[in-house]
Design a protein that fits this description.
about 260 residues, OB fold (Dihydrolipoamide Acetyltransferase, E2P), 4-stranded antiparallel sheet, Rossmann fold
Length: about 260
């Protein structure tokens, strides 16, 4: 049985997993036990907290022990990646962790005999150096295209909404455990205390609707996005977004071209 392993349950990794499952693949998503991806309603993040969730008609189930047989759902887990590799023996691994400013380090298994196809998504990937090929995730004409050299470095600012770009987003000032009673879709006013990172209060950066907010008890890295406010109250916040979908379609196209699907 051929599995495909996706690293990262953020909106892009989840969109890729969704499209793979739609195309009949057996899919595993690996991430931290309590992932902090803010756009949790636009991916399979909630499966890590609620055991199951549904994203645009595709169900994901969390498993805490290796149970890699044929499944009707996307499997999500926090099992050690090398353990997954040894048990599930995936044919393809897709790194969708979106490290942004870090150069991806080639995994140990990539240079040994146990070597599935490795696809890199987002900044920090160079074909033949730390992946077999990469897919562009930066907005623009090459979004979703296979990259023969290096993917674009992270540049520019987040989407501007009602004149606000970075001003509507909170990046964690430190690593810690996030606590909040709010959820995606809630309405906030600027400077409201909307949660605590350990004991530090975190305030709303702007007034509007929460497009993204890390789930309560999320384990947060330093400088990770934990809050995204939509001052227009109109941005999509539930289901697969346009950009993640284009990336996912690009992955499917590349896999079909290489006869992996």
């Amino acid at each position: 049985m051929d599995y495909i392993l996706v690293l990262g349950c953020g909106d892009i990794g989840s969109a890729v997993a969704h499209q793979l499952k739609t195309n009949g693949c057996q899919v595993i998503i690996s991430d931290n036990r309590f992932p902090a991806h803010a756009r949790c309603e636009m991916g399979f993040v909630n499966a890590f907290y609620d055991e199951t969730c549904i994203l645009d008609g595709i169900k994901a189930t969390y498993v805490d022990v290796p149970q890699f047989q044929r499944n009707a759902t996307v499997l999500t887990c926090s099992i050690d990646v090398m353990h997954i590799m040894s048990i599930a023996k995936p044919r393809v691994v897709i790194d969708a962790r979106m490290s942004k400013r870090l150069i991806a380090t080639p995994p140990a298994w990539w240079s040994c005999g146990m070597r599935p196809l490795l696809i890199g998504l987002g900044p920090g990937f160079t074909t033949a150096q730390n992946c077999d090929f990469a897919i562009e995730t930066a907005r623009g004409e090459f979004l979703g295209a296979e990259v023969l050299g290096s993917t674009k470095v992270l540049e520019g600012d987040p989407l501007t909404v009602h004149g606000l770009s970075r001003e509507r987003i909170v990046y964690s000032p430190s690593a810690g455990v996030w606590h909040t009673a709010l959820n995606v879709g809630g309405t906030v006013s600027k400077d409201d205390v909307i949660g605590y990172l350990d004991a530090e209060p975190i305030r709303a950066p702007a007034s509007g609707t929460l497009r993204g907010i890390s789930r309560n008890t999320a384990h947060v890295r330093m400088n990770q996005k934990i809050i995204e406010v939509d001052p227009s109250h109109q941005l999509k916040r539930i289901g697969i977004g346009e950009r993640p979908l284009k990336v996912a379609i690009g992955v499917i196209h590349a896999l079909k071209k290489k006869h992996f699907l």
